[in-house]
Structures are given as structure tokens and as C-alpha cells.
Amino acid sequence: MKVTAIIATLFAGVALAIPTGGGGGGGGAAAYDPCSGLYDTAECCATDVLGVADLDCAPPPTVPVSAATFSSACAAIGQRARCCVLPVLGQAVLCQTPVGVDD
């Protein structure tokens, strides 16, 4: 009887240890999110006014996959990468430089 309990416990432990195959596994890099929190809108802006307002803003022409691609995509159209709170009609209020982007 004790042998049956030990074998059942062993099989239960093995069953719990086997991965289910869902979720894409671990160890992969997380997707790049240039802007998070309050400053959650990625924008390319031409003029920064003391970090309070930015002028002539638009979304990046390509989806940024890293800080370098975000910065270079904006630089290609003569603008700078920014994370903003409230972009309205090409004007953005409260913007900051994204993490990893040299300004």
C-alpha cells in the first residue's frame, strides 16, 4: 500500500512539473515600450518649450522596437523622440525624453 502511495505522489509531482506549452515560454525579451505611466504617448516633436509643451508633434513613422530605433525614426523626419501626457492637434503638454534615448 505504501508503494502505491509513493508511486502516485511521484506521478503527481511529474505531472505538475511538465510545462503546459502556453504563454510563449520564458527567457524571451519583453517588447519595447518607450513610454509608460503618465507619460504614455510616444511622439516625435520638433520644438520643446521648457519641458512643459512640445510643438509640431506626431506619432513616430514606424513602430519603435528599441530606444535607438525610436530616436532614429524621429531624427529621420527632423524631430526628437518624446513621451507625452496629452497630445492634441500637433501640440503636446508635459513631455519628457524616453528612457534610453540620448537627447
Which features would summarize this protein structure in a list?
single chain, 103 residues, alpha+beta, hfbii hydrophobin, 4-stranded antiparallel beta barrel, 29% strand, Class_II_hydrophobin, Class_II_Hydrophobin_sf, signal
Provide a quick synopsis of the model.
By secondary structure, the protein is α+β, with helices and mostly antiparallel strands. It is built from two helices and four strands, in the order αββαββ. A hairpin with a 2-residue loop joins strand 3 and strand 4 (91-96).
How would you describe this protein?
With 103 residues, this protein is an alpha+beta fold. It has a domain at 32-103: Hydrophobin (hfbii hydrophobin, Alpha-Beta Barrel). Helix content is 25%, strand content 29%. The protein is built from 2 helices and 4 strands; from the N terminus they run αββαββ. It has helices at 2-17, 67-76, and strands at residues 41-49, 53-58, 80-88, 91-96. Strands 1-2-4-3 form a 4-stranded antiparallel β-barrel. A hairpin with a 3-residue loop joins strand 1 and strand 2. It is elongated and about 80 Å long. Keywords: Disulfide bond, Signal. Residues 1-17 form the signal peptide.
Task: Chart the SSEs and their pairings.
Blueprint: H1 2-17, E1 41-49, E2 53-58, H2 67-76, E3 80-88, E4 91-96
Antiparallel strand pairs: 1-2, 1-3, 2-4, 3-4
